[in-house]
Amino acid sequence: VKESFTKAELDAIADKLAVDDTNEDSWSIASVIWKPHHNSLTGNYDVNVLIAALEGKGKKVVWHDRRNDASAINLDQSPDTLTGLMLNVPVKRFAGLWNSRHWIAVRRIHGLWYNLDSDLREPVTFKDDNEMKEFLNASLTEGGEILIILEDE
């Protein structure tokens, strides 16, 4: 996919953000594994890396106000305007011993919305906007955050 990112590209963005970080006083030996913007152990990147990567591809990232449900997101926008959504959801791994967060991409492709969660065996198609909004609302209820990805004007 021409708009995807490689691990090397995301690592470079995370490293640049770390170099640009003026708060180096908070660094410790653990910062080697848990870098400020990338956890080498889990592979997770923080939101700053994702926003910088998306902005580098001409996208605009808008936080969804989680006080509103998913119906506040205009899914009817043209694909030339609304690129997709990124969700950051809480997850429990290793029988609940490890609490973390996970990024999920949701994208409209040829008029259909897909859940592109990397934890799934394959992408899942939402049957309609209502099913997708139910998924988004469930994510919000569980403590998830939604980023709206738009084409930058």
UniProtKB/TrEMBL annotation:
InterPro entries: JOSD1/2 (IPR040053), Josephin (IPR006155). Gene3D superfamilies: 3.90.70.40. Transmembrane segments: none annotated. It catalyses: Thiol-dependent hydrolysis of ester, thioester, amide, peptide and isopeptide bonds formed by the C-terminal Gly of ubiquitin (a 76-residue protein attached to proteins as an intracellular targeting signal). Residues 1-153 form the Josephin domain. Its EC number is 3.4.19.12. One of its GO terms (molecular function) is cysteine-type deubiquitinase activity. It comes from the Eukaryota. Keywords: Hydrolase, Protease, Ubl conjugation pathway. It is an enzyme of class 3 (hydrolase). Pfam families: Josephin (PF02099). GO terms for biological process: protein deubiquitination; proteolysis. This is ubiquitinyl hydrolase 1. It comes from Nymphaea colorata.
